[in-house]
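Quick one: Aminotransferase class V-fold PLP-dependent enzyme from Kribbella ginsengisoli, structure tokens please.
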Amino acid sequence: MTVLSPRPDLWTLDPDYVHLNHGSFGAVPRRTQELLALLRAEAEANPMRWFRSVPERLTASRLELAAFLQTDPAGFALVPNASAGVTAALSTIPIPAGSKLVLTNHAYGAVRYAAERFAKANRAEIVVVDVPLEADDDAVVAAVEAVLDERTAALIVDQISSATAMVFPIRRLAALCRSLGIASIVDGAHAPALLDAPAEDGADFWTGNFHKWPAAPRATAGLVVAEQWRTATLPLIVSWSEYDERLPERFDQQGTADYASWIAAPESLRVLADLEWPRRRSELSTLVDEGARILAKSLGTSVAEVAHPAATMRLVELPFPGERSPDAGEAFKEKVSRELKAEITLTGFDTRVFIRLSAHAYNSLHDYQRLAEWLPPML
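--- reply ---
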């Protein structure tokens, strides 16, 4: 079987740059951009007619996105991003004074901040479970189980960690929480298109972004709510759908918003289908493996040994120059962009700093080879 060719022609990415950070903000295919532009032009041509058409169009889009996730459409709502989904979940569950919210040390920063806000407001406690990069599923479950007790209001856990590209055993963790009567909230920001049926793992709440690996327009994400929580789950903005008894429709109408992104999102799913996505995803995993090895060799470091790495992301340790701080990291990324014309991202875990490499259909091995050639002299 021949290897699928890279398809940068399907995107409008600047060819003068090497784009190796799809995992942060995604990249919207040309076809979806064109549809998005048509929808926005239609809205501006006749705003009244546009907003009359929005409910029916949103329903059609939402059903396609739910089918892509293989989840019950009655429990699937659209939200701007996974952070909004986590916040909606935390707004729904009881968090008694003296209880605790449990996270791992892989948690996304904004999710950690959300947990801290709700813990402070409810006089609850944050408990962070240390999970090593090399921990297998048994070790992850054992570490989490050790801190769950009658005081635990919820477990908030990544499905694929943003910081470490590590896949967590969500099905087992959700089952553990159910057995203990503890709510489970899954941050599946990176899961759509990287995992099949990511929302079917039995969690009370699951949320994931379509703007990452499905390459949908930004501010498009889903929130999946277990049946017992649907009546109580409300959008973060009070609007005209406040008293709609149906969960999806309750989240649809959020005032005068730009709904074009949500309506255009299924076009990106059709682009993935044309790209033979399941096969391509497997080939991209091989590509990012090789790219990470090439970069690590050039840096004199190593590829992080993550027990269950995500299909299209890898961590390459960086001998980071100078102070290890968010400001220093941002300055370094800006320098790489400006001087090397390469877009990368850095992540930190414990005391280590990594380049988190991504691979999507527009990438080729040459992209990683260029970074491996250009980056060492900068260090």
